[in-house]
């Protein structure tokens, strides 16, 4: 493949949306209210729409006959490059929205930089996605505030979720070799530059939500290199079920 | 109000409906009209909400990204239908929470078809094609029903349902033209969903309890048997077109009547499912009630947060 770095770089971006979209899709019909149910499904729908744009582009770059579905559904577990944060399970609504919030703040900042990419397709996709993601960020931030500054019970649950998920935030700013190469070419986003603003923004919102900002400095990473938590394998069994059971068919 | 005055109002009311005028929430209406509409409209809303579950079951396993996105959008539409049908029903003086309570306690019914399991991907096609197809036949006449909010909701619902129906049929076309395995999957889904879809159009006219009154109020414009015949006549050629076989050995074209004759429907099965003993009744209610109970702390928190915000605003104003 001529553009292997670009191909892998796109996968790195798209896998976050793919895996998070899959997680949000699990909730369909099981939300705490009809309105939140619709919103969560909508976020999932947006994310899968983004995934399609990215993978169609990646398929074109690969140029070996692979389709968006092959790329989305026929890789092995170690070949998925999403961050560990997005694969964490829907433990409860606080976890779901906490995960969404911690990712959205990053995602919005990331897309805003990706719009400046010298790769015109990526920049166009970022331009399209950023409108959706700014809505996601508003939605998840509002819910963190509601649950944080709601009842005693909701505050405790929201705090627990943030405390548990915090360990996965640092990975968002970890650069892989592919990332570095892409930054050098003017295509990729230098995520290390987003870190300070991210923690500032997240901390401000947590304060507003009357929540404590976790102090732990112990972080987990590995997703970007394909070393995932145990949760991913099960998610992939669902995601890949049809493509694996009925290979080489059209749907 | 004297008995005579009420009788007078009732006469005026029936005359308005006969003139095809719409009844609006603030208009006077007989108590029975209100109750019948609450029953039917909330039942319709519940069906949309419970209907999310069998299809939601395949979102994580949809075979392609395109199908996944379409399925997500479809289930989201159903949630939307539920939302505005609940709102339309609220105009009759019942709250959404009260309607949920009726659903969760088993007092209110929902469409029995959703008590069947979705066990293969082809079920997504069969549901869209047959279940939404039968729903449209039930619902199109309701776009002209006498109660304004319901009629207006149904116009929107029907537009989306007809899109879903085409989408479902398109899934079936793809399977029927696919590999032998895919075709078998499609035929199997048709075999399982055909009879329950016919049952969806309601009991036969001789045992249907609500028909006469509902006809008068334009809640119904054709009898169950007529609707069922329409559904069969419309669907059989669609099955033939894609090479699938309707699982009814008695099905044959009746030249004289200009419609299909069809075999005996297993009404014992219908009543078994209606009475709560279908394959998935308990699971559907468990999922629904479980989501509602697990969500209680979330809804409470949202209320408390809104109150706190309001208080702060007032304090600032002072």
UniProtKB/TrEMBL annotation, chain A:
Superkingdom, taxonomy of origin: Bacteria
Gene Ontology annotations for the cellular component aspect, listed alphabetically: cytosol
InterPro entries: Aromatic_CoA_ox/epox, Ferritin-like, Ferritin-like_SF, PaaA_PaaC, PaaC
Xref: Gene3D superfamilies: 1.20.1260.10
GO biological process: phenylacetate catabolic process
Pfam family name, one: PaaA_PaaC
NCBIfam families per record: PA_CoA_Oxy3 (TIGR02158)
Protein name listed in UniProt: Ring-1,2-phenylacetyl-CoA epoxidase subunit PaaC
Organism placement in taxonomy: Bacteria, Pseudomonadati, Bacteroidota, Flavobacteriia, Flavobacteriales
UniProtKB/TrEMBL annotation, chain B:
InterPro entries xref list: Aromatic_CoA_ox/epox, Ferritin-like, Ferritin-like_SF, PaaA, PaaA_PaaC
GO biological process: phenylacetate catabolic process
Source domain of life: Bacteria
Recorded GO CC terms: cytosol
GO molecular function annotation: phenylacetyl-CoA 1,2-epoxidase activity
NCBIfam families in UniProt: PA_CoA_Oxy1
PANTHER family found in the cross-reference section: 1,2-PHENYLACETYL-COA EPOXIDASE, SUBUNIT A, PHENYLACETIC ACID DEGRADATION PROTEIN PAA
Protein name: Ring-1,2-phenylacetyl-CoA epoxidase subunit PaaA
Native organism: Ichthyenterobacterium magnum
């Amino acid at each position: 493949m001529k553009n292997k770095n670009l191909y892998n770089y796109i996968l790195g971006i798209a896998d976050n949306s793919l895996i998070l979209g899959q997680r949000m899709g699990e909730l369909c019909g099981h939300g705490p209210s009809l309105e939140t149910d619709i919103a969560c499904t909508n976020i999932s729908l947006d994310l899968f729409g983004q995934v399609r744009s990215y993978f169609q582009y990646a398929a074109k770059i690969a140029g070996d006959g692979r389709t968006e579905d092959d790329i989305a559904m026929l890789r092995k577990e170690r070949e998925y490059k999403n961050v560990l944060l997005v694969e964490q399970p829907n433990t409860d609504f606080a976890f779901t929205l906490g995960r969404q919030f911690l990712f959205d703040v990053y995602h919005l900042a990331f897309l805003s930089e990706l719009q400046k990419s010298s790769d015109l397709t990526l920049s166009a996709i970022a331009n399209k996605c950023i409108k959706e993601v700014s809505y996601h960020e508003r939605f998840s931030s509002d819910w963190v505030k509601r649950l944080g500054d709601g009842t005693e019970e909701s505050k405790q649950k929201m705090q627990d979720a943030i405390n548990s998920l915090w360990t996965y935030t640092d990975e968002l700013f970890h650069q892989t070799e592919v990332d570095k190469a892409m930054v050098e070419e003017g295509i990729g986003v230098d995520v290390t530059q987003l870190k300070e603003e991210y923690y500032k923004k997240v901390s401000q919102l947590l304060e507003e939500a009357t929540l404590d900002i976790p102090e732990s400095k112990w972080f987990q990473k590995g997703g970007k290199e394909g070393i995932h938590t145990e949760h991913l394998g099960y998610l992939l069994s669902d995601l890949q079920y049809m493509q694996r059971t009925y290979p080489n068919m059209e749907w | 109000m004297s008995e005579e005055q009420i009788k007078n109002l009732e006469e005026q009311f029936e005359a308005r409906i006969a003139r095809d005028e719409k009844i609006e929430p603030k208009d006077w209406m007989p108590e029975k009209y209100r109750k019948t509409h609450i029953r039917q409209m909330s039942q319709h809303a519940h069906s949309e909400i419970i209907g999310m579950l069998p299809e939601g079951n395949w979102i994580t396993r949809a075979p392609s990204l395109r199908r996944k996105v379409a399925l997500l959008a479809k289930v989201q539409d159903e949630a939307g239908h539920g939302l505005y049908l609940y709102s339309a029903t609220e105009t009759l003086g019942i709250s959404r929470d009260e309607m949920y309570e009726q659903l969760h306690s088993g007092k209110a019914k929902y469409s029995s078809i959703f008590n069947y399991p979705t066990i293969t991907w082809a079920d997504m096609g069969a549901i869209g094609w047959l279940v939404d197809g039968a729903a449209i036949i039930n619902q199109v006449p309701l776009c002209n029903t006498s109660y304004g909010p319901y009629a207006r909701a149904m116009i929107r619902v029907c537009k989306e349902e007809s899109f879903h129906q085409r989408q479902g049929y398109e899934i079936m076309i793809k399977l029927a033209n696919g590999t032998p395995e895919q075709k078998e999957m499609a035929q199997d889904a048709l075999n399982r969903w055909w009879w329950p879809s016919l049952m969806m159009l309601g009991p036969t006219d001789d045992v249907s309890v609500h028909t006469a009154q509902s006809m008068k109020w334009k809640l119904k414009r054709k009898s169950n048997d007529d609707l069922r015949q329409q559904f069969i006549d419309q669907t059989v050629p669609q099955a033939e077109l894609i090479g699938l076989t309707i699982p009814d050995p008695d099905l044959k074209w009746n030249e004289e009547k200009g419609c299909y004759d069809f075999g005996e429907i297993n009404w014992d099965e219908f009543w078994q499912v209606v009475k709560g003993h279908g394959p998935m009744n308990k699971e559907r209610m468990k999922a629904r009630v479980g989501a509602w109970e697990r969500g209680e702390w979330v809804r409470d928190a949202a209320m408390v947060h809104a109150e706190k915000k309001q208080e702060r605003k007032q304090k600032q104003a002072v």
